[in-house]
Design brief:
The chain is α/β, with parallel strands linked by helices. Helices cover 35% and strands 22% of the residues.
């Protein structure tokens, strides 16, 4: 394997894990809650990630949810796509574990070439080589749901959620952040994650990298390819699923209204 790719993958995992640890400590010690905690978490995690990337990969561009979009990235050969806190509402709610940190690397020669999703509340980081990094604390739930499940946004479930479930014999299960839902499919706790309520590149880049490493199919609701480092980072819909369900799900989603 290319040495640069190994180093980039390691860095993605290290950064997502370290930012997650920072957020857990902030959550436990700041004395804040609700929107104040969420705002501070977004800020601190973003500052940490930007500082580390500037130090470790000074020649690369960065697209972050919490920073102004520097269009110079469009001519860059390498762009880090990060979500400092994926699921800010869940992070700022005591006891919730369905939030994440996303760190991905896009290359103009290879698309998504590295990605890591940290689930700090569970103490684990998923890498795009199919491996995981467990933290000192936290319990990673096992896979294998008793019956097929489709995970969807708790606040913006797609209008076709129940139709998808009918097509594959599954039930709907609302969950928090995009990363948490995607990793539920990676762990085998769900067969699919479907979304059409609006997202951006930082919401899906790292989860897609990690999911593809496990052989899952990832694409848009019309069956087309997910494209990153586009002029507009808006990437509103997503499917991550076991490949055996791809055709049945897309048959439902491709002709339906993607709003809701």
């Amino acid at each position: 394997m290319n040495a640069q790719l190994v180093a980039d993958r390691t860095l993605a995992g290290d950064l997502a894990t370290a930012a997650g640890e920072l957020l857990v400590e902030l959550r436990n010690s700041s004395g804040l809650c609700g929107k104040e905690l969420g705002k501070l978490g977004d800020q601190r995690s973003n500052e940490f990630l930007l500082a580390r990337l500037a130090e470790d990969r000074p020649g690369d561009a960065v697209l972050s949810e919490e920073s102004a979009d520097d269009k110079a990235r469009l001519s860059a050969s390498r762009v880090w796509i990060v979500d400092p806190v994926d699921g800010t509402k869940e992070f700022s709610t005591d006891g919730r574990v369905d939030w994440a940190v996303h760190v991905a690397l896009w290359s103009n020669s290879g698309g998504l070439v590295a990605g890591a999703v940290a689930l700090p509340g569970l103490g684990v980081t998923y890498l795009d080589d199919g491996t995981t990094v467990e933290l000192a604390t936290g319990l990673v739930p096992g896979g294998g749901a008793a019956a097929p499940r489709v995970v969807v946004s708790a606040s913006r479930p797609p209008v076709f959620a129940h139709a998808v479930c009918d097509a594959i014999g599954a039930t709907v299960h609302p969950m928090g952040s995009a990363g948490a839902k995607a990793m539920a499919v990676v762990r085998g706790e769900a067969e699919a994650y479907v979304h059409a309520g609006g997202q951006f590149e930082w919401d899906s880049a790292a989860p897609v990298a990690a999911a593809r490493a496990q052989g899952l199919w990832c694409g848009r609701i019309d069956g087309s390819e997910l494209r990153y480092n586009q002029d507009s980072p808006y990437l509103p819909d997503l499917i991550i699923c076991q490949p055996v369900y791809r055709d049945r799900i897309v048959e439902v989603t491709k002709g339906l209204n993607a709003s809701g």
